[in-house]
AMP deaminase (Sinocyclocheilus rhinocerous), 1262 residues
Amino acid sequence: HIFVAFENKFFGLNLDEFEDYEQAAKTLLTALFIREKYSRLAYHCFPRTTAKFLRSANNEKWKICPVPSEGPYSMEDLPQNLNYSLRMKDGIIYVYDNEDALKQDQPRSLPYPDLETFAIDMSHVLAMIADGPTKTYCHRRLNFLMSKFHLHEMLNEMAELKELKSVPHRDFYNVRKVDTHIHAAACMNQKHLLKFIKDTYKTEADRVVLEKGGKKFTLKQVFDNLKMDPYDLTVDSLDVHAGRQTFHRFDKFNSKYNPVGASELREIYIKSDNYINGEYFARLIKEVAHDLEESKYQHAEPRLSIYGRATEEWDNLSKWFIKQKLHSPNMRWIIQVPRIYDIFRSKKIVPNFAKILENIFLPLFQATINPQKHKETHVFLKHVTGFDSVDDESKHSDHIFTYKSPKPEEWTMEENPPYTYYLFHMYANIMVLNNLRKERGLNTFQFRPHCGEAGSITHLVSAFLTADNISHGLNLKKSPVLQYLYYLTQVPIAMSPLSNNSLFLEYSKNPLREFLQKGLCVSLSTDDPLQFHYTKEALMEEYAIAAQLWKLSTCDVCEIARNSVLQSGLSHQEKKHFLGENYLQDGPEGNDIRRTNVAQIRMAYRHETLCNELSFLVDAVKSEAVAEKAS
Amino acid sequence: HIFVAFENKFFGLNLDEFEDYEQAAKTLLTALFIREKYSRLAYHCFPRTTAKFLRSANNEKWKICPVPSEGPYSMEDLPQNLNYSLRMKDGIIYVYDNEDALKQDQPRSLPYPDLETFAIDMSHVLAMIADGPTKTYCHRRLNFLMSKFHLHEMLNEMAELKELKSVPHRDFYNVRKVDTHIHAAACMNQKHLLKFIKDTYKTEADRVVLEKGGKKFTLKQVFDNLKMDPYDLTVDSLDVHAGRQTFHRFDKFNSKYNPVGASELREIYIKSDNYINGEYFARLIKEVAHDLEESKYQHAEPRLSIYGRATEEWDNLSKWFIKQKLHSPNMRWIIQVPRIYDIFRSKKIVPNFAKILENIFLPLFQATINPQKHKETHVFLKHVTGFDSVDDESKHSDHIFTYKSPKPEEWTMEENPPYTYYLFHMYANIMVLNNLRKERGLNTFQFRPHCGEAGSITHLVSAFLTADNISHGLNLKKSPVLQYLYYLTQVPIAMSPLSNNSLFLEYSKNPLREFLQKGLCVSLSTDDPLQFHYTKEALMEEYAIAAQLWKLSTCDVCEIARNSVLQSGLSHQEKKHFLGENYLQDGPEGNDIRRTNVAQIRMAYRHETLCNELSFLVDAVKSEAVAEKAS
């Protein structure tokens, strides 16, 4: 309570400004209600503290959302088939009790999203972020949060350190850390991939590994055609590492996924659906998983791709996962969907955008309704914890998404739909799916798109509504209102400063430290160890560099690690084990310092600070209501 | 030869400036001759290219200095005892054929250094670095070197990369790297020390490990007295890591050598001369050596301390080294001498400064003259490759060293002698010793002091005369003349940006990248992994962070690695093996790209650039001579 003297947002304001700020508070609260609505509908998490304050404005109660824990590859005791009928309408899958209900267009009572409402909510938040008084208000609050943290640091740094020193057996090395954003195809470092290629060549040179144009090739033939002896291969000739040439060149970066610039090697080594049934890719991932298990305290959430190109993708991916036994206690799986409709459309693989959505989501609904008919997908989905939306955000789109935009079935042009269009339709389907799965007692999925790495800041508005948490978030730098909203709703942000340093933003300009200081919920992640990291322990490299460069304290890095566990798709049981029994509680009560190594002083500071910010908003609205009544 | 158009130092000068610059060139050449003299006398290395240009001004020839390779712990076939007599005079040890010669003060014909000459040489260089025209000249040349490198990069970056890609089997991961500056007492990282402490407690709790005030203590008793269970110990409570609190506080940093702030644990775990005969310390170092051997391509040059407090120090250290079998093919040993006369004097351990010099150097001369009487020291010295001078350079000294300063025997006051005083007397003794050892065909020692980490820039002048190479060199930032001299004479500089970042200079302000670009001979080193590093591979962490933050190319980091081997005390045979048969040759001919992975384009660029800079100096002097003759 050392900050009481500063806890007045009204200091130094005249009456006009005062009224402006009441209005800003009201607007902000509305945004919070909007995000809460979207989160609740999709079974996403919304911070308890923020929810409580919203209830205090409405006199309601709030309930938490625990996630059930799931087993391994067993296909016994599958839930009954329900034989519901399914139909896609406006890009969203609707569920019907049977064919009759379908014919009469009477879908089951699930919350189906409404594009018009979404468009209104979007435009509300878009208007807010451009509104002068709201901008001023948020800008001031963020500055205040920054100064307050500096003060906290000066006053309490040694006390925090003392707390940590007195915690037995727990330090930064053995707190749990989750690599919250990592692509499976780049989850090994360059040296690891190189060694793997050499090893396979040594032991399996005569194995047929590729079929191309009707011809089959052994590993030896592949390398002969490339005029290359794997023994001579080096990380230089492998050429998968991002260099100075990739900065602001996402196109060049993407080609780094081809070892030695040869798409054959990508096909053989880092694809799950190839001539060798993705065996090499699986082995590589399992080696990474093994290292994580050895480290014991490190986890990862690798992204596997579903493109929406064909309807069998899920079946293939699930079979690969189960056949190759990819489950690891230290991994949770995320499905990434690249935003490349335009490519499939121009190659005439799909007739319209709805087809892609159908290829992605229909198999999920089918496996959820009739698990016994889609055993593999059903089993695989137990290990999937979320969806990601990926691609170069800096690509500009001419189309502006409104409720008048062509429906996915009508989106037949070659142009790619804009970012928000992708996000809404992914969110909408995930939301319906989550509600359906919840009914059946099955696990639900988080929506965790890449967002704010580059491009328009409207991306961050879409994700504010639709995402459980995001990757990157760099562009929050550019909008004080959005940054403040992400703070108030504690939207987790998986940041990858080393990746940004190679692609979009120099390390020294990365806002991670600033976000952390202000109290945004940030975690550290590697994105692509294959392209960015030098050492065997990519996540530790990420933490080490951040700690060195920004002179982070032990409490700082442990707070980041705690955020990473909170944000992750680890189960409720695991989170209890890693963060403490009461991790869902607010403030210090929710923190078991013996497990997280985060000082209680820090937890109290964060909680009190968030409560203060929220209470200003709520009080402003209430006082306005009183003033209105009185007048 | 793309730079021909720029290779004219005279562009844009008027006549006055022209004369200034001729004078500056002459002055600089004199400085090069001075350093060459000191290097030759001490069997230090001086760059072949620079020497050639100096010869071209004098029509002489130059010879190289290969170092013979040595065996392990064998005490067979020791050289004969010579029974020379020894006496210290003015802090320098003189060698006499026998007692008669000593009485008549007729020392053997060895080059003994002369303080007066040294003082004149020092003042010459000191005057230079303050001379306006010379400063302007050097500043311009350095700017030119920088711009020229940028141009080189723009034109040749892709060509360099192409060269590297075509080298079979060699990449950054398997080029040899030497950690050129690391203190043995901090050569393990914090996690490693912690684990070691826990392991010893688990297996040897009842072993007597400490004697204090006449009482003996088991490991268990030690921890009981500290009220601490090693099982609960964490890196936080260990508290050896440098944090924000150590910046510009070398005093606080030094206390980080005490685990848990307890000097008992330092005594038990990281001392070579204690109740358990330094067994734990040796085991820790051997674990680090084992990791280096596993890595295969990494080497280190750890510093062990000789204080000069007592005459038995060498004997104890040598016996420890041999008994504990500390030799590793991946390690070479450096002796560090802390500059703490004042502490020993105030505790009345020594009567004057000469006593310290005698304790340090007399045993070395004795072991060199009579190896069979001092077997252990003789054998240990085969593994020692150099001397370091260490302490906080930012401590100010009131005394200014001149030839009128008290001689070491007269230095009885409590005040510590200044930096230059230490350096001169260490250099002087090493020089005589090296000449004596050369006569006997024994290995010689490099003088490699810490220099320019902080404090006065005069330190860098002293080292310019006396050092084979230095550690840190940050303050070269502050003097263009010295920086240019260090460039021209290619004095190797072992830099530790992560250490600096915790102690003296923020990472982003570290001049390493700038020095590298200009062509100074810089290497990367860790200094103290215990205090600064987070990962298991401290040297790789150092390289990774530099490469990430400064966007170094593969060629850049491989050039740094090559410099580290050149600078190191590895043998001539080893350097041939790691860098190529002809590594002593100039330019591309001296580089075996298949071993170093440094592009020949880069080697040619460096060589041509250095030759150009040197030829300007030589031509200026020659043209002046012609002009003088003509007038």
Q: What stands out?
A: The radius of gyration of chain A is 25 Å.
